[in-house]
Amino acid sequence: MMKTNQSWGGRFAEGPREAVARYTDSQTYDRALYAQDIRASQAHARMLGRQGVITPEEARILVEGLDTVRAEIEAGSFAWKPELEDVHMNIEARLTELTGDVGKKLHTGRSRNDQVGLSFRLFVADRLEVWRQRAAGLCAVLLKRAVEHQDDILPGCTHLQPAQPVSLAHHLLAYAWMFRRDALRLGDTLKRVRVSPLGAAALAGTTYPLDPQGVALEVGFPEIYGNSMDAVSDRDFVLEALFDGAAIMMHLSRLCEEIILWANPAFGFVKLPDGYATGSSIMPQKKNPDVAELMRGKTGRVYGALTGLLTTMKGLPLAYNRDMQEDKEGFLDADRTVESSLRLMAGMLVELTFRTERMREACKAGFLNATELADYLVGKGLPFREAHHVTGQAVAAAEREGKGLEDLALPELQALEPRIDSDVYAVLDYAAAVRRRETPGGTGPRSVTRQMEQLGQWLAGWDKA
Ligand code: ARG
Questions:
Q1: Do domains 113-151+168-356 and 370-464 have the same CATH topology?
Q2: CATH superfamily membership of 370-464
Q3: C-beta of 110 in contact with ligand 1 (< 6 A)
Q4: Is 238 touching ligand 1 by the criterion CB < 6 Å?
Q5: CATH annotation of 9-108
Q6: Site to substitute for ligand 1 among 110, 111, 112, 328, most atoms within 8 A of C-beta
Q7: Residue 158 has what pLDDT?
Q8: pLDDT tens, 150-194?
Q9: Mean pLDDT over the full length of the chain
Q10: What percent of the chain has a predicted confidence (pLDDT) above 70?
């Protein structure tokens, strides 16, 4: 049996069973929210002072007492007490030890229900800002690597089969656009996270003359809730954050999959930096892409956090229910995963070596210039059906000889179709095929330059938006 809880123990003769206390305890993990909880409590105390609910002197004592608590937590000298359940009651109990009866006034006009809402919203907002920075940072690394590889080409795939040559810059920029979208999505989500629920109290509002908008502005949130019952039971802001995290991990996981494939010697398109690979204890030749594999694997736990919380929320009646305490561990885990994955991917890409000769060679293997030959023949007056047929014969001949179309001698090509001339070789050039695709957003050099300018402009101003 534990001591009765000093915050709500008035009507209880005895405390909870040990196992129950352990089961309901959240301070082991929600202590991560201590800074945000203190920020919110200080704003609440100041507002109580301004509104005349407590004296200005009492407000000052509370604010300073909370500064002391923060300092103790940061110094590691704070004694966390499991019987006090969560971060909120741990901090308030210590404040009361420090300030006596004044400390007991902090919770005036407030419930843990609106308190946890504001603390967690502040926490999620702080973390999403970090994700946004990391996503933009990764976009910048991809842009930088693209700038270095504007003249390198590789087989672009559909169905994971070689389709048409593309520039390596274009391939890398495809991911830069994804992470730009992720950063923009986070900015949009932040608008809905930065809404203060403080003032909703337990669920119905309160009788004290509070100023919820004043508290919101003081913690840096522009808006307050519209309905007190919605305010204390809304967890959409965590769900949106988790979706944004899931989308980031999905994008990272796709890039990981390409890096893993490209590192396989059958592709040989990249050389992994030593610091981002591991060896095998039995096969000395191995260099394994573990970071990319783990990142692909960790995507699952972020999806799990999103699915888990959606499921937790689905049957809950208004307003606050203790089920909602389950919103935190999933987000904390997702936060560690998303933040570190974005950071590690950026680090790995900085050091990744692109084996551009191998990429260029690989363009030959799939007859990626077959479309170019057919189009050339159409230009020489052949109907497309015939051009397609002749090109097919040329591909078959090249395949028999184990060469590319561009390696066939002119007489050999002319035997298939006399209208073929020596100007065909310029057309069969893979880089030329890339250069000709200048439709908006295409792989042609002017289009790629335009993309790089657009992304560069966005990166120069994204954090001021
Ligand atoms: N630790 C709780 C949570 O995270 C705080 C709110 C508890 N409120 C209550 N009335 N039991 O949801």
A1: no
A2: Fumarase/aspartase (C-terminal domain) (1.10.40.30)
A3: no
A4: no
A5: 1.10.275.10
A6: 112
A7: 95
A8: 999 999 999 999 999 999 999 999 999 999 999 999 999 999 999
A9: 96
A10: 99
- pLDDT by residue (tens digit) across 202-258? 999 999 999 999 999 999 999 999 999 999 999 999 999 999 999 999 999 999 999
DSSP β-bridge partners for residue 286: none
Catalytic residue among 77, 159, 281, 422: 159
Q: What is the CATH number of domain 113-151+168-356?
A: 1.20.200.10
Q: Is 159 one of the annotated active-site residues of the chain?
A: yes
Does any ligand 1 atom lie closer than 6 A to the CB of residue 27? no
Alpha carbon of 21 to ligand 1 centroid (Å): 14
Question: Which residue among the candidates 170, 228, 280, 340 is catalytic per the annotation?
Answer: 280
pTM of the model: 0.94
Enumerate the domain spans of the chain.
Answer: 9-108, 113-151+168-356, 370-464
388 belongs to the catalytic site: no
From ligand 1's centre to the CA of 393, what distance in Å?
74
**Burial track 398-431 (b if 16+ CB lie within 10 A, e otherwise):** beeeeebbbebeeeebeebbeebeeebeebbebe
Percent of the chain with pLDDT over 90: 91
Is the C-beta atom of 25 inside 6 A of ligand 1?
no
